[in-house]
Structure formats: structure tokens, C-alpha cells
Amino acid sequence: xxxxxxxxxxxxxxxxxxxxxxxxxxxxxxxxxxxxxxxxxxxxxxxxxxxxxxxxxxxxxxxxxxxxxxxxxxxxxxxxxxxxxxxxxxxxxxxxxxxxxxxxxxxxxxxxxxxxxxxxxxxxxxxxxxxxxxxxxxxxxxxxxxxxxxxxxxxxxxxxxxxxxxxxxxxxxxxxxxxxxxxxxxxxxxxxxxxxxxxxxxxxxxxxxxxxxxx
Length: 215
Description:
Blueprint: E1 4-5, H1 6-13, E2 19-22, E3 40-44, E4 55-57, H2 61-67, E5 78-82, E6 86-87, E7 90-91, H3 116-120, E8 124-129, E9 143-144, H4 150-160, E10 165-169, H5 197-207, E11 211-214
Parallel strand pairs: 1-8, 2-3, 2-10, 3-4, 4-5, 5-8, 8-9, 10-11
Antiparallel strand pairs: 6-7
């Protein structure tokens, strides 16, 4: 199953574009104010329900399963997951191109969902995550620093692709999600709040001299 490097995909498909990273935090409710932003959109987990993104990023297989549909939101969207998708908040030993949910104990419907529709369209994207540094890496993929939450991965992916202008919406501190978002997996990784992600994000912004506006 063909898997493409997300960094190269962004460079080829969206040269010189500005980006919007869409999270699930409370400011997501302000999305109507940015509908004419003209930016490419990378959604994080369930934020893809709110607007059809250019790239839907999922760290956890379970979140992908919550959101998958063969039509509607994913019709023109690329799917991005780490080379070792997370199951129960930990990297699976299985690589993305051979991933079998049953081998990670996820054997019941609707968890056996396909990746091939994205691969067939050349839109199954991936990267090597530093969280899975002890597992097998794909030499064709860029290695991306990942810590705490998926917003950190998104910033580092875009930084690696040379993106200089980012707006974030719904990437907030605290402990809450936007209205309508299911809170069952909120802070499932054991962190006390989302605040800790910002020390990593600010480091990336400074290092790569990025222009970042937080909404």
C-alpha cells in the first residue's frame, strides 16, 4: 500500500501556502469568522467534522475510526498518520502500510476501517514520529518531533515543509473542548491540561522563524 511523505506532499501540493491548523478547543466555535481565510487546512482528530480539511491528521487509530466515512468529509482530503499509529495512546508496533487493528486488540466493528481509499488516490501520508524512536522507521519518510499533543506534530510537519505562516483555531490550553465535541477522550494521555503543548509550539515557531497567530 503506497504511503507518501507528508512533508513532500505539502511542498508539492501546497507550495507557498499559508496554513490553518484546526483543533478541538473552545475557540473552534469562532470558525465562521475564518471561513474565507484562503488558507490550506490541517485538522487534528475530530476537528475534521467541522470543515473538510486538506489534510486530516490523526495520531490515534481510534480517533480515525470515530471519524471515518467513505464519502462526505474525506472525499477530497488526504489522511496523515504517524508510521506507527497510536493505539491506547501508545505507538503500535505495526507500521501504517501493514496495519491490522485485530493485532492490537481492536477486532470489533467499526474498528476495521480501510486505508486503501486514501492510498489509491495518493493521499495516504505519513512521517516517522520521535515518540516511536525505538520502532522500525521508514527511510522514505521525514522524522518529526512529537510531544504531548498532535498540535505539536502539526507545527513540526509544516515547519519541515518550509511553511512560514500559520493560524491556529481550537488549539487551546486548559481542559475543555469546543461545543459539540465528545469529551470521552479528553486528556486521555494523562496530562493535566493542554497548556504544556505551547512550550513546544513556541520553540518550533522561534527556531523556524514562523509567523503564528493563535485564534
